[in-house]
Amino acid sequence: MFGHGFLLSRKSLSDVSECVPLSNFGCDGRENSTTSEYCSEDEKIRRIASNPGAPMACPAARHRVVFMLVDALRYDFTQYDPSIESPLPYQNRLPVIQETLDSRPDSARLYKFMADPPTTTLQRIKALVTGSLPTFVDVSSNFAAMELQEDSSIDQLHKNGGKVVLLGDDTWARLMPGRWLRSHAQYSFHTWDLDTVDNEVDSKIYDELQKDDWDLMVAHYLGVDHAGHRYGPNHPEMTRKLKETNTRLKKIIEILPSDVLLYVLGDHGMTETGDHGGESKNERTAALFAYRGAGLSADMYGTGREVPQTDFAATLSAALGRPPPAPSLGTLMIPTLPKMSTTHTLLALSNNLKQITKYLVRYGEESQQVSLEKLTQLINMTRDQIDKSASVYTENELNNYIADVRTVTENVRNIFREVWVEFDSLSMLRALLLLTLAIFFNWLITEGIPMERLPNIFASTFVSTGLISMAVCVVFCYTAYFFELLEDVEHAIILSTGLMSGLLTCSLVIMHWDGITQRWYEGRSQLHERFSRSALVGSAAVLVSNSFIIEEGAVLSFLSLTILALIAWNVKTIKALALWVAFGAVLAATRVYRGCREEQGDCWTAGGNQPTGQASRAALVLALGSMAAVVAVARRHIGWRGYGVVLAGLFACAHWAVGWGTLGSPGRSKLLARGAWLVIVTMLLLLFRRDGRGAILPVSVCGLLLYVASSLVLGAALAPAAGLGLLAGCLAIALVAMVKTEGVTKFSLSARCSSSTICLWSLLSCYMFYGAGHHATLGHVRWAPAFHAGDPQTVPGLKYVAGVFMFLELFGFPLLFGATVPVLALWGRPASTVGPRSQLAAVFALCLKFSLCFAIRVFASALSATIHCRHLMIWGVFTPKLLFESGACAAALIGAILGAALTAWHTPSQQKSS
Questions:
Q1: What mean pLDDT comes out for the span 750-754?
Q2: For a designed S-S bond to 145, which of 23, 174, 199, 272 qualifies (C-beta 3.0 to 4.6 A apart)?
Q3: pLDDT at 559 over 60
Q4: Higher-confidence position of 697 and 5
Q5: Bridge partners (DSSP) listed for residue 734
Q6: DSSP reduced 3-state for 646
Q7: pLDDT tier at 73 (50, 70, 90 boundaries)?
Q8: What are 218's strand-pairing partners?
Q9: In whole angstroms, what is the distance from residue 203 CA to residue 217 CA?
Q10: d(Cα 669, Cα 789) in Å, to the nearest integer?
C-alpha cells in the first residue's frame, strides 16, 4: 500500500502527433482554406507558424539518419587532451571525434548529453524516443521491457511509411515490436560478454550503409557498457572497446553519404565502478556527437555545452520530416540539424511549441497533478512564443527567438519534473497507520504476555478466529468491488485485513492485560536489555539521515559488537570474553568485503569501491577453504543430513574451480551449479522427514544449506564473506547459550528470548548485507548471479528461478538468520531439558521478535521517505533504502516462518497439542 502511494508513475497519454502537408494549407495559414490569395511558400509558412490555432505542418525537408547508440558512452570518454602524458584507460581513446571537429567544424558537433535519473537502459531509450521523463518506478521493468504505449519518433516514422532498420540491443525490439524493416537484435543482458553484440552489429552495419531502402538505422553497441559492468572504466578492456569504437566510427564517417545525418550518443554514463542507475553526475553525463558531411546549422552552443536528452526526440523527428512525439517535453537542437532557411526553422520551432501546448492541454484534462493556474500560465507562454514568430526575420532575431523557445521549454520541463513525484498521501498514511498498529500490538504481545501463557493462546480458538476473520474481509471486499461499491479492491483488502488484525491483537492484549502488567511490574531490565532496545530503535530512527544511510554498515557493526559485549559482561566468564573477542575479529575481517558508495569520498577515490568481480587466486582459495570447513563440520556433527550439505558444498567448490580464470569452462561450471541447487532443494524437502531427535538438527542443517545457497549466488569472490557471517552467527549463539537468570532452567530459556538476543541477531543479519559487499543503491546490484546456472531466456520459467537467485544474493543473510532463530532458544543443555510446549513458545516469541525488528526498520524507512519526499536525495538514498529494507523484511519473515515450521514439525506430536 505504501509503495502504491509513494512509487507513482506519471500519467501516460495515448495521443499521437499528426501533421498536415504544406500543400493542404492556404495562404491565410489555415488548413483546407478556400481563399484564392496567392503567396510564396515563405509567406505561407510564416502564417502557419504564427497561428496558434493552426495544426502542425509537416516539415518540408526529410533526411536519412544513422542513430548509433554506444551504451554508457560517458562524455569524458569522447574528449581528447594531447597534454595528458599518461592517459587513463578511458582517456584519449576516441581521437576521431576531435579530429573531425577540428577538420570539419561546419559538419560536426559534440555536446554533453545530460540524462535524467534513473539512468537505466530501458528508461533512457524511452526518453530518447519519446522526449518525456520516465519515472523512478519504471526502473522495475528494466529487464522485462513491455511494449511502449506512448508516441515516439520511431512510431512517427513507421506510421507514415518510413523504414527503420535495427541492429544490436534487443531491448528496442521488445519495446517497439513490429516497427522494423529489418531487425538484427541480440540478447543484451550478458553483461560479461563484451563482444558478441558489437561484432554482430559490425557484421551488418557496413552493408546496411550501402543500401538506400531505409530512412532510419538504429545501431546499439553494448561493449563499452559491459566492459564497465565487468571491469570498470579503469581497465585495459575499456581501452580495447573504446579503440574499437574509434575504428568503427572512423570507417562509418568515411563511407557515410554526405546527406545522411549521423548521431553518435550515449544513453547514460557510468560511475568509477562501471555501474549506473542512479543520479550521480558521472551516471547522468553522456556524450552526443552529430555529423553530416554536407554540413549542419550554425553552432550557437559551443563544444561541451550541456543539452538534455529529452531534446533528442523532437530533434530526431524534425530530421526525419515528422513532428515531435506527443509526450515530448524537449526542444529542437538546431545546431545538430541540417542547414535550414529562417522560415523552415520557424516552422520546426512552431511545431515544437504547438505539440507542447497540446500536451499541456491534454495532460490537464487527464490529470490534476499540475494546478490549473500553472497550466494556464504555461499554455499562455507557449502561445505567446508562437505569436512572436511572425516578427522574426534576421539571423540575430532568429537566434534570440530560439533562446526564448528553449527557456519556455525548460520551464515546462521543470514544472513537470517537480509534479511527477506526486504522492498519494492517503495511501501512505494508511500504510504507516497499519504498520504502527502491527508493531505496537506485537511488541505488547512479545514483551508483555508471559511465555507460559503463549501455548494456551494457540490452543484456543484465537488462530482459527483470525483466519476466518481475514477470509470474511476478503470476501466482503470482493463483493463490494463486484457491485461497484469499491474502486480499489487491493487497497480495501489490505486496509480491512490490517485493521481486523489490529483489532484481534488488541483484544488479545486486553484479555491478558493482568499478566502483562504483572510481568512489567516484576521485571527489571538489565543494562544490556535496555541498551539493545535503544540500539535497535536508534538504528531505525536515524534512517531519516542520508549521512547515516551512507555509513550504515560501520554503525551496524559497532552496535552488534557492543550488544554482544554487554551480554558477555553479564555472563562474566573468560570463555564469554574469548567468544566476544573472536566475534569482533570476524566482524573486522568482513571489512575487507565491504565496498563503499560514491558519496563516501576518500573511500571511493581510494579504490574501495570494487569489492567484487572476477575472483582472484587468493579469493578462490579462501572460498574453497571456507566451504571445506563448513562441509567438514557438517559431516562430523549432523548425522545423515550432513551428506546433503557435503554434496552441495562439493558441487559448489567444483563450480567455482571449473569456471575460474580465462581457461575455465563456463558450460561445465553452470552444470555443476545446477547440481548444487538440485541437492540443496532436495535436502530442504528432506528436512521435513521426522527422525525423533528434535528440531535443533533440522534447523541447523537448514541454516547450513542456506549458507551454501548464499555462497553460490555471491560467487567465489564473496563466498568467504558468507563463511564469516556464518562464523559470526555461531559465536553469537555460543555466547547467548551461556546467558542465565537466577540459575533457574526455565528462566534461562526466558533470558535467551530477551530483547538483547534478538536485537543482536537482527542487527547482525542487517550488517552482513554490507559485509557481503552490498549497498542500498540500485547501481550496486550485481546481476551476474541471475545467470550463474543458465540463461533465463533459453528455458521457459527460468526467469523466476533467476529472480530467486537475485533475492538470495541480496537478502540471503536475513533469510539465513531468520531460519536459524530457533537455534538461539534451543541450543545447549539447559534449553533441551525444558518441555516441548515451552520450547515452541520460546521459538514463536523469538521469531515474532525477529520479524518485528525488521518491521521497525521498514516503518522507519517509510517514514523517512515520507518526510523527505521532496529531498534532493530522495531517489538516490531514501527510496532505494526503503526498497532494500522491504526486501530484507520479507526475507526475514520467510526465514522465520521456515525455522518455526521446522521446529513445530519436529516436536513430538503427542506433546504439542497447542
A1: 63
A2: 174
A3: yes
A4: 697
A5: none
A6: helix
A7: very high
A8: 67, 166
A9: 14
A10: 8
d(CA 665, CA 651): 15
E strand or H helix that includes residue 113: strand 108-114
For residues 662 and 659, give the distance between their C-alpha atoms in angstroms, rounded to a whole number: 8
Nearest to 118, CA basis, from 329, 314, 280: 280
Q: Can you tell me the distance from the alpha carbon of 355 to that of 24, in angstroms, rounded to the nearest whole number?
A: 19
Q: In sequence order, which residues have a C-beta less than 8 Å from that of residue 21 and are 6 or more positions away?
A: 57, 58
pTM of the model: 0.70
CB atoms within 10 A of CB 604: 17
Sheet holding 164-169, edge to edge: 182-186, 164-169, 216-221, 65-70, 261-265, 285-291, 108-114, 306-308
The predicted model gives 665-677 an average pLDDT of 84
471 in helix, strand or coil?
helix
The CATH-assigned architecture of domain 58-334 is: 3-Layer(aba) Sandwich (3.40)
Which pLDDT belongs to residue 213? 92
Q: pLDDT by residue (tens digit) across 812-826?
A: 999 999 999 988 888
Which amino acid is it at 395? E
Q: Which residue has the cell 505567446?
A: 384
Ordered by start, the domain boundaries in the chain are: 20-55+341-421, 58-334, 524-909
pLDDT, one tens digit per residue, over 882-891 is: 889 999 999 9
Mean pLDDT check: name the lowest of 234-248, 606-620, 712-726.
Answer: 606-620
Give the helix ranges, DSSP H, for 740-878: 745-752, 755-771, 798-819, 821-826, 829-832, 836-867
Peptide bond just before 814 cis, omega within 30 deg:
no
Region 766-795: what's the mean pLDDT? 76
Classify residue 558 by burial, with Cβ atoms within 10 Å: 0-12, 13-18, 19+: middle
Neighbours of 88 (CB within 10 A): 14
Mean pLDDT of 77-96: 92
pLDDT grade for 787, boundaries at 50, 70 and 90: confident
Q: Determine phi and psi for 49, rounding to 5 degrees.
A: -65, -35
Residues 6+ apart with CB under 8 A from 68: 219, 221, 249, 252, 262, 263, 264, 265
Q: Among 865, 884, 885, which residue's Cα sits nearest to residue 875?
A: 865
Cα angle: 673, vertex 809, 689; to 5 degrees: 65
Rounded distance, CA 77 to CA 277, Å? 19
**Per-residue cell: 585:** 575479529
Cell numbers placing 187: 540478447
Q: How does residue 829 score in pLDDT terms, banded at 50, 70 and 90?
A: low
Q: Which amino acid is at 132?
A: S
Sign of CA dihedral 610, 614, 618, 622: positive
Instruction: Extract the C-alpha cell encoding 237.
Output: 578492456
Contacts of 722 (CB under 8 A, 6+ apart): 626, 707, 710, 711, 714, 772, 812, 813
